[in-house]
Input
Amino acid sequence: MRKREREITDPAEIRSILERCKILHLGLSDDGQPYVVPLNYGYTLDDAALTFYLHGATEGYKYEVIQKNPKVSFAMECDTIPFEGKAACQYGMSYRSLMGKGRAELVTDAIEKQAALSVLMKTQTGKDFTFNDKLVSIVNIIKISVDSYSAKKRPLPQTPATERE
Ligand SMILES: Cc1cc2nc3c(=O)[nH]c(=O)nc-3n(C[C@H](O)[C@H](O)[C@H](O)COP(=O)(O)OP(=O)(O)OC[C@H]3O[C@@H](n4cnc5c(N)ncnc54)[C@H](O)[C@@H]3O)c2cc1C
Output
């Protein structure tokens, strides 16, 4: 990361980003043609091991691409606040973000799919939900095993816009 001072390494803050973002932009590659699709997610973070669970209809382009190439990238952001400046280049946006790389696979085991949907709903709503075989049979679950990731924060400027040269 070029701006090292903006890197987040504190596990508690990384978890806080994962809790807040809610939407993951999944990057796939179809024979060299990038495809980015926004999806809601659930996550588990055990020590450094990060896993995402995504759900969707049982058909769609993203599955075709994953079958051909399971290598993925992802990005998410939260706490985005625009700020102003005197000059155009002083405008900007504060944020917290996380991005990385991993491998995607479709979960086929019904029990694992139920657990994945519970994780997803916990991340999205903070609530506990359970699922039965019938419910999981009508959705696909994508599991992303994350190989590497980084987190970053851009804080709001300390000085008011009127004082910045
Ligand atoms: C905030 C947000 C959260 C979402 N959460 C989920 C989720 O949790 N699960 C889920 O399955 N879907 C979710 N969606 C919808 C998702 O982005 C896709 O539209 C959907 O998953 C179908 O993707 P697919 O690759 O199977 O495309 P297909 O339905 O097979 O369609 C392929 C083509 O449709 C177009 N297309 C697909 N998606 C979009 C889109 N979002 N916007 C514009 N054009 C598009 C593209 O041209 C693409 O090449 C979410 C969308 C948003 C904006």
Observations:
- The first helix runs from residue 11 to 21.
